[in-house]
Amino acid sequence: MEDGPTQQPRTDSVFTMPEETVLRTLQTDKADGLSQAEADKRLAENGPNALTAHVTPKWVIFLRQFKNVIIYILLLAAVLTLIMRHWSDATVILLVVIINAFIGYYQEVSAANALDKIRNLLSKEATVIRDGKRQDIDAEQLVVGDIVYLEAGDNVPADLRIVDADNLRIQESMLTGEPDSVEKTFDPLTDVKTPLAERQNMAYASTAVTNGSGTAVVTAVAEATEIGQISKSVGSVKEVKTPLMRELDGLGKWISYVIVGIAVALFIYGWIIHLYALPTLALAVVTMIVGSLPEGLPASTAVILSLGVGNLTKHQAIVKTLPAVETLGAVDIIATDKTGTLTKNEMTAQDVYTKTHHYTVTGTGYAPDGTILLDGQPAGLSADPDLTQLLISGFEANDTFLNEENGQWTINGEPTDGAFLTLYRKQFDQEPENVELDRIPFDSDYRYIAKLVVDKTSGQHVIMIKGSPDKLFSMASSAGGFDAAEWQPIIDSLTQQGKRVVAVGMKPVSDQITEIDHDTLTSGVTMLGVVGIIDPPREEVIDALKQMRRAGVKVKMITGDHPVTATAIGEKLGLSDNIKAITGPEIDALSFDELKTVITRYDVFARTTPQNKLDIVRAYQANGLVTAMTGDGVNDAPALKQADIGVAMGIKGTDVAKDSADMVLADDNFSTMDFAIREGRRLYDNIKKSILFLLPTSFAEGLIVAISIMFQQALPLVPTQLLWINMVSAITIQFAFIAEPAEPGIMDRPPRQTGRSLMNKHDVFQMTYVSIIIAVMGLVAFDVLTSQGVGEMVASTVAVNIIVLGKVFYLFNIRTPLLAISKTLFENKLAFIVIGILMVLQLGLTYLPFMQTIFKTASMTWQQWAISAACGLVVLVVAEIDKMIRIQLNRQRGGKPLNN
């Protein structure tokens, strides 16, 4: 063992090797383990058994917020104003830039680092054999080839090939999604394509030993482990911009390029014909740029999304990043983990068959709420003694505990055993009056659990047994009078429904027997019946899925379960009219292009690995489909991060899943997704209205300055006034849009097509004429007032208020596809509140001395206010005439109601 392996063997083949081959390949010894010298050598060559994560410095995150075309232009404008010593203008521009940067920075750093959580999943200590001695070491010191001892309660410290096992069971749901712990053996497997969930001779880092003990050899450490590969996948997933952010980026670039192009052309034109002195011309062009840029757009969008976040929080949906709120409204596909998301992750008995009757059981999960029914009526125990004895035997042949804490029912032990405890408590309030004498714990070789008890009432000694039907059938057949063929159709039917079938029996024995072994049960067992158990669909999920299908959102189920079980659950949920399933190994056999081609055909993805989940999400995205991913396990983390929006469960979800996700369902209620999608669509509609409201007035400001430059007039507006109009109205009047109710039929229309421009042709047309109307009225008012001897500062203040009141009146047009004067006028009370706040601010701008100094304004007469209001009313009248024409044309075509 002097020359250790230079690289770790592939875990996709080590489980097929005989024990001798594994030990020889890893150059180790089962009895003596590695020598300390060899272990130190391998540790130096391959590094510690630890996961590392790259952490982005917070200052880098802050600087990233300035990577935006609009911000670049504003910074350039600030530099130019500083050069020209216009300190107040430069200060206000820089404040706007910094505020926007802090908003983005806060959103980004608020998401915790999932990689740190994954790193903490690795065990801290391990028990190894080195130099022939058993010793405890720091798990980070483990190397490939170490012989590791496992026992109940241990966390598996690395990926291991089991070489010896004694009733060893390991809980692997963190990696596979399977709720039950897995029986482990040490025999080699035959198929190199065996899914991870079925590799019975392997143990994986971060999983937990629940029963028994075993010895294993380390096959992979650190990043080479399955959990390490998940960490690597999470770290390699690039952040995907949400559909809204992509649309806003495109809009921002388009606006910026147009504005800069016009500004450059104006500057060259003014310089060539000597309109102004160079400093004055430069300031005029900067003023035009500042006025035209919608610098309030990031702030107003953030305001709407933030309030949307608050609304979702009230419904138990905690959103970590603002854009994720709106992304829900664009979702085409929800790829969801089954266990704990669509189902309760609480095994539940639903069918009980005795020799004479079929009983159904109501209620789901571990809470003992429900009833055992016969033909739809509560079952009477007196009519069927086998039922009573089956419930007692299922309760007693058990080593799991059912507990209630703070209203939540949980188990400590095996989920299948927990189902029998709950089943018993649905019928009885008190535990059976039996005294345990001996028990046979569940063993993977025998596949049953048995307990010898004494009935305190009769003194009878009875063995109660629960396990695999074929095992109990054999025991019952030897007693005579039992025909397994009569039970087989029942078992087949339950299996086809995706249910796990457990048989229950009993055997009265002599009072002299106080201990039992497997030989005691080879004969004489009375078959009491079989129980069909399933991890049931959440009741509220079924209705939510119906609504999502109406909304054009397709839900796909991803699970580690067998395809038959997964398909049965999918049918119960109503995922699709004709469910088709594909397995992880079948996905592995496809190239990515092939997967992309066939991905939309399937509704259920069974026996999947974390890499499969990641590939599934990427394949949907490659088809141009906005994809959400829901999950709760570590194995879901890469796909949660890759998805356009990742959604984790709050109660049963792991910290890794929560940190990888964009949204957390605090109550684990998948049906909250239905509300979240509705809210996302409403927010998108309102953000679009907000943008269509903001842009015309911004362009009007720039147009006023541009026309003034071309006609060599005094500038009616200064940069600080333009920034005031854009920012103050953005953080007041824009609030009105968050309270706009959802449009009728919002969940009866398909998801919007992403990739399209945010604005259609009519939006551009309306934006153009509204900009021209406001600009012309502002210029005319300024010229008329100054020609009448009114001071320029007063005339400038009137122009500011014409633009602001134009915004106010235009709000009533843009907020609804219906006419402004309709039943919807007073639906949004917040609109009137924010208009009142805005007018208070405008009065302060107009009359407060310190505001007059900063923003170069002056006091106005009531007649000048009347002029401003009349100009605003013109905007509303013209826009409403346009809307009336569109409504009429739409009716003639038989179209649907307008949707801005």
Question: Can you characterise this structure?
Answer:
This protein is an alpha+beta fold. Helix content is 47%, strand content 16%. The protein contains 32 helices and 26 strands. The strands form four sheets. It has a nine-stranded antiparallel β-sheet, with helices on both faces. Strands 8-26-25-24-9-21-23-22 form an eight-stranded mixed β-sheet, with helices on both faces. Strand 12 and strand 13 (377-378) form a beta hairpin. Helix 4 packs across helix 6 (87-109), helix 6 (87-109) runs parallel beside helix 27 and helix 10 (243-272) packs parallel to helix 26 (672-710). The longest helix has 39 residues, at 672-710. It is elongated. Mean pLDDT is 83; it is low at 1-11 and 110-115.
Average pLDDT: 83
- Kindly state the number of beta strands: 26
Instruction: Give me the Rg, rounded.
Output: 35 Å
Oligomer: single chain
Largest sheet: number of strands, sense, barrel closure: 9 strands, antiparallel
End-to-end distance, in Å? 74 Å
